[in-house]
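Field: sequence (string)
Field: structure_tokens (string)

Example rows 1 and 2, in order.
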Amino acid sequence: ILAPALTSFAGYFSAEFGKPFSEKPNQIGIGVGSGVVVSRLGPGDDSDPALTTLATVTASVLDRLGEIGVRAYAGALSDETASFVPDQDQVASQVGEESLHALAIAGSVQGQAAAESSFSLGVVVNGAVIVTDLKMDTVASISSNSEINANMSASESMSQVQVLSTNQLSVSTDAGGASVSAGVSASGSSVEIAVGGAENNFMSSNQTIATIEGSSTVVGESVTVDAQHTPDLEHIAFGVAVSVSVSLSSFGAAIGFSGAFLQVDQSDSVWAGISDSHVSVGAALAVQADDQTSMNTSSGSGSLQVSIGSASFSLAPSAVTNKVTVGNQVLAWIGEQPAADGTLVDTSVSADTSTVTAGGSILVSATCDQDIDNTAIAVAVSVAIAPDFDSAAGAGAGASSTVTTNNVVKAAVNGVSDVSVGGTAGLNVSAIDSGSATVTVGSGAADFAWFGASIGISLAEIVNNDQVVAEVQNSMVNTTAAGTPVSITAEDTVTLYTKSVATSLSLSIGAAGAGGNSNITSNANVAASFGANSQLAPSGGVSPGDLGVNAQQAENLHAVIRGGSGGLGSVGVFNSDVMLSGSTGAYLNTENSLDLNDLNVIASTSQTVLSEGSSLTIGGLAGTGENHDVTISEAVSTSLTGNNAAWNVAGNLQVDADSGIDATAQTSGSDNAEGVSVSASLMGVGFFKVNSCVAPTVQLTVTDVTLDVQGNSSFMSQSMNQNTTASKSGSGSLIGGDAAKAFSENSPTISLTTAGLDLTGNGNVTFAGVSDGTYSTNANSVYATVFGGSAARSTNESKPSLNVLLDSGTHISSGGTVQVEASNKMLGIGDGTSKKASGFMARVGAGGGATGFGGFSKSEMTSSTEIQLADEVTILANQRGDVLIGASNQWDSTQLTHLGTGGALNDALVESDLES
């Protein structure tokens, strides 16, 4: 047990005040301070091996009744772990304590008040820095030819062998710098400068490992190999700068900068495995790697600058960055350890000498359930007061926050010559990526002076590059009980959320600008595979069980942007963008024969994607631009390859590649959403645009397989998508223009291909390619102007491509009906009878003096639906079966365009186009 309790503190504080009402010609006050903390849990040098907490049985023989535990703990003591500490006097004060806490603060205050000085100067600079490094290995192992025999005990219901490694470090770091400078001069000039900032860097490269390895033998009623990674991480950085300058008869200036910079890099490893060893259990065997990292990062800065004089100037910039990168390896395996070098499915697997026998179930599970919360806030206020137009102020606030995940989550049975399993649960190989990442960014800038400018910028981003793989490669699996199933499942269900808020206010003869991005990019790759010539067969004459190879992806992606800008001149630019690519694949690839009950090979997605925002822009001269985008280009694939091997299925066969998408891009003035996008000005323009492109690639291939199926057989490649775009604006100006534009594209590419397929079945056989899409495209502009115009433009382009190819060498013989289908459906939603804005594809409501308005709708369908039967393809429906072959296209659209305007001099145009 390693239970560190490390607390580090560095602080600098100063206060300096000049002589009150001094008559010296010059007054100068200076305050400079810093606080630095460097903390490490690990080796003294970067190049040295990690600090290790090790519980191991090596080259030993253990033969006992009951439980045998090999456990390694690192982190905060709990009631459970505390019970194992020999010296209980040390325990009470440390249960629940943080493993590491680092605090660095620097703060200074200086002030002066001069009666007769010609010049008064104050300068305060403070900064705090924290650097934290974790490099620790927590290892529990049975190794080096050890022999473990846990016999049944009369006093214990189970004889259990547990190999457990746990990392539950609790770490918090806080860095802050604050500066305050103030000066008053009765007759001279006064200049005050304040700088406050903080930097917080955290790095982690821990390993949590639980293994049985090195030609060891373990026997028990149940065996658990478990690596648990549950660190709790909290990091904070803040900077404050305040300066006040007062000159009763001359020039006054206040200048300040505040900043907070935070960076986190986590590259931990969570490994649980059995390699080159022999394990025999009467009941259950579990090999589990579990990452449940909890991370909370916050950074903020504030700058307040005030100057008063016969002439005055103030400048208040504030900046924040918050960057988190997580690239953990979560691996669970029996046999050869899976690669974590970017390889998705391990197709080149070496033979491992391991053998595993379980009378009950075998579970190989890798789970990544991270919770990441990231916040960045920047605020800047600048005030300059002087008579006769002699003051100027500037304020700028910028905040940026990014989370990038590069996790590798793999569960594998690789290169094992004998995996024997019985019971109703069977063999379950499972890789799951869940959890959430949340990024919240805010900026606010304001100035008050005769002349001034302010700008607020917020940038929020999440990038997901995770890999999730469940695989059985180059292994022999024997089922020893009737109906024992084998399940291989890879699943991605992460939730990603970004929210960016940017605001700016200028109370001056000047301008205010606000802008921001809220972006999510998901490139996750998910795969489930039974391949590299693996074998699966019942032994001892028992009936076969099911084989399921399933890859599933159901991500929830939500990007939000809010903004506001107000001033004599006012500009706002606000963007949200969600991109979903990556892949989901299910693969069955073996040259060996298979005897199964049901066979299911399915790759499926059910994605929810939303990009939205709202804004408020007010000014004499104003311009607003909003843009909300969704781009989906995911790949979904299912593949069966057999080199003419015979696969016998006593039940039903289901092979699917299925893409399901619900995509929305909208201004948040749309129905059932928060906020509304508004622009109000004397002269101004507003442009509100939404785009959503849904273009998945769905592919199903069957190559060189001989199938004998007693039940029904289904091969389906399909895309089911809902695509919604809605742009709504409300604007008003004396002179100006407004436009709302909505664009949607629905272009899935779907294919189903067989070559060298020899299928004999007693039930029905279906080959189906399906494209089923629904789009709702809505642009709505409400505008009032004396001179100007507005337009609502709504466009939909649909280019679905669907191909079903039964290529040469495909021979189907069925006792039921054989159906070959290609179905392409597209539905455009519009409901003019509801009188809701969403019922119209384009809608304009406007009025004014000399005006021009337009409402435009256009839908274009360019679809391809095709069935090809190559030469030497045979389809035979025996008994009373039918052969049904059909391809169909269907497009239903209700496209309504509405224009309601009024004006003294009015020009209006309404247009609606359909192209097929």
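Row 2 begins here:
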Amino acid sequence: MGIAAALFAGCSSGGGGTVAGGGGGGGGNTVADAVAKGASSVVADKISVLDSSESPPGAGKSTAKPITEFVATADWNKDKTFTYVHDRSTEVFTNVNEILCQIAQTNYVAMAGKGAYKALINQSLCKGNDSASNAGSSQQGDTSASSAPDYNTWTVDSKINAAGQLEAHVWVHEKARSEQNWSEPAKVITAKLVVSKTKDEVPPYGLFRIDFRGFDELTGSVKFQGLLETVQDAAGVVQLRFADKEANGQFEEKAAVIKDSDTSGRGTVYQTGNDNGTPQTYQSNFAFDSNYFRRTNSGEDKCFDRKNFEQSAWRYGLYDFETGDRFTVKSGISYNTKEDGSGTYGWIGYWGMWSPDNGASIVGNTVYNKDQSTGVTTPYTLTTYNGKLKKHTQHSTTLGDILNIPLEGYSEPDSLNPGQMVMYRVIWDGASLVKTAKAPQNMSGPLAWEPLTTPVPLDTSNMRFGGDLNFWSQALGGQVRIPLQSCTYTPGSFGAPGTTSCSNPSSTSPVIFYTEDIVYPGDAVPTTLTCFDNCPQAPTADGMDPLGLTYSQDYTPGFAGHAYTFANMTLKDSGNAGNPALLATAPANQSWGFNSGALVDLATYQAQLDCGNNSGQICGWKGWTLPVFYTWETGPNNWNKLSIVTSGDSVVTFDPPVKVEYTHSQTVNTAADYKYNGVKFFLDYNGFGELHGIPGKCFDMATGQETMDCSGGNKRYVPEFSIAAGSTVKNGTTTYYVKPLEVEQRMVKKDPGVCTAAGVTAPSAALPLPDAATDSVDPGLKGLEPPAEVKVIGGVIQTTTAKSVLRKFLGL
């Protein structure tokens, strides 16, 4: 990620590609028209050098309810599907698009002329999903960190200036950051956006310029600077220019793209950076016409077919089956620490509390939410507990329903090196569980998956780890268990561990997975909770010891487990005088916090925990298999804690991600995703644009070819398939329509001779590139930030009434 995007760090829909499925856009021909109509944007919200194919995934798919039955004002008709083309040479525009995405979240067009205001920008919505590191997400710690929103506060003042242009001034504050061998001071970033023509007047981008600078907040010295602009010559040819550069010279990127016509153009991109002390530079020239795209640099000549694409949808919306309106997840509310709005702004929701100072400015325990439409301010009582109890409820499907869905986490000793464990990727192929790929477990970062030449059936007759198979599956929302039947245990001997033999599973064998809910005040919790594995230890009244977080595993026959009570929203260690199981300071290697093992209601489930064989002993590992169990999360981060607000005696609760069931449809037997035809997926919907759980794959950016190995640089992680517009998902008995909001197309590689024969030749010399140091202009806004109140959150203008805020909380 470029420095500008990292620091500017809504997502987008708009120019530079194809827009389908609804209006919006510029909202009018001129800047003034667009502002008058309250348009969402006037310039491209995303830059795509190449025009895309005009059909997003499933655009022509028939639906149970004709989409035309929805009224014109339905969200289904207003929300657009933006389709763009990705290539290695356009990777520099990832940073541009993160900037534009965040600017779009400010809703600066609709707010023009209404005075200065603050906008909470959810940076998570604008960060790329395609990092290869996402392929290793199954190996991350099971905390709330990965799904928590990441807000930053922007101050914005937009208006029509004397020249009739739309002008927006922006101030962004960034906290100091540090890691092992790297640190950055606190900064204030200023930016000035001037729009002279909309993307309707000058497609596909509009005519605009953004200048930005980042300053050390203490010394005032420039840390980075840059610009993004579109210019049009006398012949009407549009050029896009971008540059940003760190003051220390360690990072720089720049690009120039000329659109010679609607379907042809040329450009040059340049990037330089530092990878663990080694300078890295990339530069390429490219050209394209309506049929082909070609890029060249030293030692590289690649040709791609512009008519032949692979597609991936990155963002989706869910819509009411009857009305076509957005399905809203009640995720949280904004607050200010002072009644008059002059304090610090923050956000509180399901994933915890967020504020620039981590809540340090809250006086007492009262925060205030202001209804922007009426001016009424409502006080709320804020309470933060330094941990949270989570309830896990069991659900099931069958192996036949999850045909070919990747399951990870199954390990066996390496046959060539018995001291090492190998992790396998397993699928149900319709007849048996088979291993399809392997990866060593002695490495960090994304797993280096290697496909097996021939799938190998999983042997259930000689297992070392009990009679249940435990996996992790993105498509099923996390941990997955497959209980096996007719299991017998053979004790081991010295140097040879015991083994378990079970019958082979069938297509009707159950597949167990769980949904998670936070326990709120007033929720019923068993009087005593018992833990057998990864049990928190609280030796003192101060809570847990970072150097000894858990009790040692006790394998003594007849061990009854460690007992805990739950009182005042805190888990208490009964074995240590009821001390609170709270972790104030996390160990250096566990900064994400602590999650316990299964906490069970022994009074209800003791029989189901019995080891069998008339032993009368309890097998604690079975706690993870119960219909209901709990876990305890605690730690120093906001996402490790439970923050709640109350109004009177009413506790405000927020929605967890909504689990929806989706059955994939692909009847073309030559399609890559045909293997998933009729397969059920259990996806998580976190709110508008955030539907998670589709399995992924990696490909090499240099070659454009799919690769099993996601490790190393130059790799991208993309979904294996896209959900067609008009498909349906279910949450219980409620049905929703699905619509892709952002679709990426990747061109199919061709031999360079094909491009040569078609007359497509990349420029032999680089186009003139802008220089951030000399071409960018200081916005002149440092020290001029006006006082303002939060009026926009994640691109949504806050206009709901105070009463409705309490009853139905905002969902992003």
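free_text_note (row 2): Residues 45 and 100 are 5 Å apart (CA to CA).
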